[in-house]
Design brief:
Elements lengths: L3 H6 L1 H10 L5 H41 L3 H37 L19 E6 L20 H7 L3 E2 H7 L6 E2 L2 H19 L3 E2 L5 E2 L1 H7 L11 E2 L4 E3 L4 H5 L6 E3 L5 E10 L18 E11 L4 H18 L4 E5 L11 E9 L4 E10 L3 H6 L2 E4 L3 E4 L1 E9 H11 L1 E2 L2 E3 L5 H4 L3 E2 L1
Parallel strand pairs: 4-9, 8-14
Antiparallel strand pairs: 1-11, 2-3, 5-7, 6-7, 9-10, 10-16, 11-12, 12-13, 13-16, 14-15, 17-18, 18-19
Length: about 425
């Protein structure tokens, strides 16, 4: 969340940033934050004055008793008792104001960086790079007018890779069952992505796939995405929508040394999303699932180096798509299409050959200090000053749409061609 100092010192810039994210009633909300903060400060000032007076009188009691001024000492004791009662009231007022301030700050999104384009939705995102594979398998995609080959859900049935109906029987729509080569392809991609991350210097962790409420608040899934998360009400635990949540929370309430940064972690987990309100052709097959596999990369860094970390993460994800020989493009998201917590975000999309559309497979975000402030994730700068870290994360990669693109873009009369980078993991060059 934003720090109160950010708002006080850069009020107009904060309001402008909220407008870029199309946050409703930005001015009114910021004025409310400042008013509640003033209440908190006034309560703190009165409390400090009261405690100082209380301590001063309390110290005098012993001297009065020593000098035999018992009546005056008893009067002083009564004054201290009254001051303690007032202090208790002021502490309650201060606590109420602090909680009100915290809840208000939770409702305010992160401020986008200056380079984030203006815009309301996906149509306003800026394509910064498009890479097309132009061999016989993937002709010029931008000029293609007709669907090419079978969509992935028909290929999955033809080669007995994924059973969507069986998933409906067991769990419901959006929970596919991977079979045979389909299951092996999942495992191959997971191992490929983890090996690539490890080779790039990321330390692998295997976190829980359920988190408590504090973890959800720490990374900003709560309260913003509460309706999109599966909630285990009996234990008040949430199924994770991404490994970002448990991995980043490793550093909640931690003070790091500057020499430890940047921290680089990767993790494979299952991810769970309710995707409430999703329907139609855009959710067919693997396009939008309730449970899916994903490898995530997470960084904790200094403010001075986080932009470089972001670039390195973008290069890492791009390299994965190059090795998988998939047509892809990179978009810089506009303010209105960015997540609640991101300061800047780039999406990677792969081309669905049969569906003739682009599918998002990764978002790589820099959150600046927004998550770190929620997490109390800090580091000791120059061995002295304690300051907030920057946090970053990205999918590297989410499997379902990668699988869809691999099947559709590599279908041949003889079977599904396997990209060279995956062949050692899958043990074949062709799925037949």
């Amino acid at each position: 969340m934003l720090t109160i100092n950010q708002i006080i010192e850069n009020k107009e810039a904060v309001i402008a940033g909220l407008h870029k994210k199309h946050f409703a009633d930005a001015e009114a909300v910021i004025e409310r934050v400042l008013a509640v903060n003033n209440q908190r400060r006034e309560a703190q000032t009165h409390l400090d004055d009261n405690l100082a007076q209380q301590n001063k009188i309390a110290k005098s009691i012993g001297l009065l008793m020593r000098d035999g001024k018992r009546d005056e000492a008893e009067q002083a004791k009564a004054e201290v008792a009254n001051l303690k009662a007032v202090s208790k009231q002021l502490q309650e007022q201060k606590a109420e104001a602090e909680e009100a301030l915290r809840q208000l700050l939770y409702t305010i999104p992160n401020i986008p960086y200056a380079e984030v384009p203006e815009g309301v939705g996906a149509e306003d995102n800026v394509v910064v790079k498009t890479v097309q594979v132009t061999d016989s398998l993937c002709p010029n995609l931008e000029e293609s007018k007709q669907p090419l080959g079978l969509p992935h859900w028909e290929l999955a049935k033809k080669y007995n890779l994924i059973d969507f109906d069986l998933g409906v029987k067991i769990s419901g729509a959006g929970f596919p069952v991977y079979i045979g080569w389909g299951a092996r392809l999942q495992r191959a991609l997971i191992n490929f992505f983890l090996d690539e991350a490890r080779n790039a210097g990321y330390t692998e962790v295997m976190p829980p796939t359920v988190v408590n409420q504090a973890s959800g608040y720490g990374t900003g899934q709560l309260p913003d995405k509460e309706g999109q998360m599966y909630h285990c009400t009996a234990d008040d635990l949430y199924l994770i929508p991404t490994a970002e949540v448990p991995v980043t929370n490793i550093y909640r309430d931690v003070i790091l040394e500057e020499s430890e940064l940047p921290i680089k972690n990767c993790a494979y987990t299952e991810c769970f999303r309710r995707e409430a309100g999703s329907y139609g052709k855009d959710v067919r097959g693997l396009n939008r699932l309730h449970e899916f596999s994903k490898v995530e990369i997470v960084r904790v860094d200094t403010p001075e180096h986080s932009a470089e970390s972001h670039k390195e993460m973008l290069d890492h994800v791009e390299n994965l798509l190059i090795k998988l020989e998939l047509p892809y493009r990179i978009l810089r998201l506009c303010g209105g299409d960015m997540s609640f917590t991101a300061a800047i975000c780039y999406d990677f999309e792969v081309y669905s050959k049969a569906q003739q559309r682009w599918l998002e497979v990764s978002s790589v975000s820099n959150f600046d200090t927004y998550q770190a402030n929620r997490l109390h994730c800090r580091y000791r700068k120059d061995g002295k000053k304690i300051t907030l870290c920057h946090t970053l994360n990205g999918s590297a990669l989410a499997l379902p749409r990668i699988v869809a693109a691999l099947l559709e873009n590599n279908q041949t009369p003889d079977g599904i061609r396997v990209p060279a980078a995956l062949q050692p993991y899958l043990g074949t060059d062709m799925i037949k």
